Amino acid sequence: MKAFVMPEGGQTDIVEKPIPQPGPNDVIVKTTHALICTSDVHTVKGALPVANGVTLGHEALGVIHAIGSAVTGFTEGQRVAVNAVTPCFECRYCQTGYTSQCGGPLGGYQYTAQRDGNMAEYFVVPHAKANLAPIPDDISSEAAVYACDMLSTGFMGAEHCYLRLGDTAAVFAQGAVGLSATIGLSLLGASRIFAVESVPNRQELSKAYGATDIIDFSEGDAVEQIREATDGEGVDAAVEALGFPQTWESCLRVTKAGGRVSNIGYHGENPNPLQVPLDAFGLGMADKSIHSGLCPGGNDRMQRIFALIRTGRFDPTRMTTHTFAFDDVGDGFRMMRDKEDGIIKPLITF
Ligand SMILES: [Zn+2]
Ligand SMILES: [Zn+2]
Predict the structure, then answer these.
(1) To 10 degrees, the CA torsion angle through 206, 207, 208, 211?
(2) Ligand 2 geometric centre to CA of 145 (Å)
(3) pLDDT, the chain, mean
(4) Would you tell me which of 6, 116, 176, 235 could form a disulfide with 168, CB atoms 3.0–4.6 Å apart?
């Protein structure tokens, strides 16, 4: 089979690898659709230590090719997806409810970090009884693939804002994860959603997904603009969806007393510790809370997201700005890295 790999740091290639065989608890999926993620770009840049030759990717779905001896309830040929995070659902971390931290910090993130990723013609789903998600017949694969990471991560960012109906929120950056957070905040009942973004097609999509106010940071400090629009108060919650020190600090500055900061940005490329501005943090006593998280996995999570897509609450495929055949995945990856041509999310078809 063909697999999209990182031969060594800074490089990508398509190489031949053997089709994986299922262990007792695994299912092997024949890939039909996948999305390229900015996380892969970070990984190739060296932000995450991974083995040379590892297959990239963690947002893919397809049809069941082979089923491990201990896995029941699935049939060959069935259309299925798997979350980017594939916890065991058995260890103590999982049993306490923190499945993304399975076995230890970030341990639920197995694809690319601990095993081959799934940007390949076939891939392994570990702990398949818990992680494999049948795709309802009335959802397209093009839509379902957004549940693998973008919607699951973005919704988590919104969930960690602990909104009361009518609360106000800001989302810093409207890439696919930030846009998904905007969808989540809208569904959870935010009265006003400030979307901080300067790229026109992202601003437009953000409005379509429920943002009430677009804050263009190229026209002045985003925090000041949001304060001005809220009579100096700021917002109840802020989502960091970029992974930059400045936007992190902006989240602390833009929230009012009692505010919640929800971090979903990846800060691995910043060599310095993140700063907490003490004035915005009330010298440590502002009643603000910070919640960080990693995309939750598991079939139940996936089914909840599928249910929202099925009922037409939003259309995730609007985030697909480009489509590539798998043989051209390298072109999609380069465009994602260089943020060319208004790219938001490139879909890869097999
Ligand atoms: Zn991803
Ligand atoms: Zn576990």
Answers:
(1) 80
(2) 24
(3) 97
(4) 235
DSSP labels, 240-273: E-S--HHHHHHHHHHEEEEEEEEE-S--TT--SP
Nearest residue to 186 (alpha-carbon basis) of 135, 237, 139, 233: 237
Q: What digits encode the pLDDT tens for the residues 88-102?
A: 999 999 999 999 999
Percent of the chain with pLDDT over 70: 100
Which segment of 8-17, 208-217, 262-271 scores lowest on mean pLDDT?
262-271
3-state secondary structure of 180: helix
Give distance in angstroms: CA of 5 to centre of ligand 1: 15
Ligand 2 centre to CA of 187 (Å) is: 30
Q: For the segment 132-146, what is each residue's pLDDT rounded down to a tens digit?
A: 999 999 999 999 999
Residue 128 CA, ligand 2 centroid: distance in Å: 13
The pLDDT tens digits for 168-193 are 999 999 999 999 999 999 999 999 99
Whether 201 and 185 have beta carbons less than 8 Å apart is answered as no
Round to whole Å and give the CA distance between 285 and 264. Answer: 23
pTM of the complete model: 0.97
DSSP 19: P
Say how many residues make up the chain.
350
Tokens representing 259 are: 């505010």
Rg (CA), the chain: 20
Tell me which ligand sits closest to the C-alpha of residue 98.
2
336 in Cβ contact with 343 (< 8 Å): yes
Strand (E) or helix (H) holding 312: none
119 CB contacts (<8 Å, ≥6 apart)?
3, 4, 34, 36, 40, 55, 56, 57, 60, 329, 348
User: d(Cα 271, Cα 57) in Å, to the nearest integer?
Assistant: 24
Strands 2-6 and 54-55: antiparallel
